[in-house]
Structure prediction request, 698 residues.
Amino acid sequence: MSITSRVKKVLTGNHATAYAVMQARVDVIPAYPITPQTTIVEKLDEFIENGLLDASMIRVESEHSAMAAAIGASAAGARTYTATSSHGLLYMYENLWWAANARLPIVATFVTRAIGPPWNIWSDHQDIFTLRDSGWILFMAKNAQEAYDLTLQAFKIAENPNIRLPVGIGYDGFYISHTSEPVEMLAQDEVDAFLPDKRSIKPLLDPSNPYTIGNLPEASFNFLIRKNMWGSMESSIDYIKKVGYEYYLLTGRNYGDLVDKYRCEDADTIFVSIGAMANEGMVAVDRLRSKGHKVGHMALRLLRPYPEDEVIDSIGNAERIIVMSRAVSMGKGGILFTDLIDVVYRNRLNVDVYDIVVGLAGVEVVDNDFIKVYNDVLDGIFDKRETIFLMGGKYV
Amino acid sequence: MSKPRLVSTIGEKEYYYPGHAACHGCGASIGLRHLLKAIGPNAILAVPAGCTSIIAGRANLSTFGIPFIHTAFGSAASVASGIIEALDRLGKKDVNVVVWAGDGGTFDIGFASLSGAAERGHNILYVLDDNEAYMNTGIQRSGATPRGAWTTTTIKGKKEGKKNILDIMRAHNIPYLATASVAYPLDFHRKVKKALSIKGFKFIHLMSPCPPGWRFDMHLTVEVARKAVLSGVWILMEIENGLLRLNPPSNTMLEKRRLPVEEYVKMQGRFRFLKGELLEEFKRDVERNWERIKKILEEQSR
Prediction:
């Protein structure tokens, strides 16, 4: 039965996503199973079999083909969705870039998971960050409600004719994908009114108006294709905020802020993290605040395009930033750190930035980890030029 | 004056335009021209990396009069699956979705996606344009390169035989498979039309000689392709709903009324190492193909 009025259900992150995809009335879902993404696709298959969703599921033979079929479907003008994780994401990698460069408004969920070997199904953010430079607009949700909300917004953003870029929504495997929490869902007619008409997606492949997609260009023509993509990426920020604000007016949940600021206003120290562990960061802030420390937390909800203005605004007059990355650029540093340090330098911000790598391979990150790092930063035990690895409350 | 038979059958309208970037004497070019006449204009072509990535011309112009999408090397059949499902959702049910892929994109890197699309039974026509090596990257051996052929990665001749892709596709139980040759365009045209009339996954294996890769003069393309058939190295046939039928002129060649294999081999510089025992093994490859077909025909008539 379709959802005729607003309803709150206890859902896992994966099922919340599946409901959003159903309510977005997607046309084509090419998918291949991988833990911990699978229950999204299983749920969507159930929706289709039970007549709740009028869509085609293409049960492909690999992730590489999942994204290839998504490319074909989207190029032909269908609203298209898929999901994957970890090695699946890496296996579809070639076609993920293909989708971006072809400017196809595909929406995908990336349920984050460590990359092997050794085999490991638990969450870290290494997989989604491989898409950092690809041209995918990338969100990171920190709970099931955000997974649901951002999935709906993703279709609207991707299909804007001035943007036409694929949009990915990331969230942590198991911590969010398989943990149940209350999720408020919109009524179907609200979703229908919020999203654009899916038939307004301009098909690239149309026999009545034949085009060749992807012919060899002059280098300079190709350069401009890339430059135009940059322009769409940059200008998408305003639209993403606009959509987020519209969603706020509809639901009271604010997505107009691309950075989820928590008690940053007068903070002298700000934590930065994303995804599930951001919730632990906010608990740590409350605990430290109760003892009189002026700390805050920034959860980046949008990874690409990088919400630079909002990050600067959130930093305000803080003296130090502690960046907790769940992914590392080998030989360089925590990826959230390397992203942020560039903003600090370009804008000549007078702030110390600490590079802490945590939670790799699914090692749990808790509020105590944030508090420990905070205390040690104040004690001055770190060399700011170092990348610090913290595992289970111990530096390693 | 009445029109020649070829024109009256395949029509005068062209969807493969002058200005294409194929080599002189390109077999694929003949194949593309006739394929497009048979599928156009209400068709979409998906093409993986290969010679046709170049043949298609310079952006933002195009060689093709129908919608054409370049795909990643291993992805043509999967992209076509996405297209056909999308067209179905959009209510455009009369568009021919066709893959045109080389032997590398079919026998090797694209095989998983081909097998997947065939197993799913997607309503696609897959045309394999077989020039028996990675020609576009400079003549490297593929799973389709025949025994004894020189390539830049088999500089003393390939030791292994050619993968029998038709048998492999036949094992997918798809409703229609055929072989074709650029020397027999009417046969090819008929097979494309036949395939389009059947719902499901269809596979046509087109032999298309390559002058620079096979080392023969550019004016001999059709002659080389014809010799392949007349010597029995390439066999024209079709398999409809599991029933195999030989097509002219191969249907007269079961009892060895064939030109000597040497007639075909000697035209091509790539076979300069094909002598002695290697040549005998090549001939046994040809013989084994015919024996297999004979066996299938006998089983069918029982």
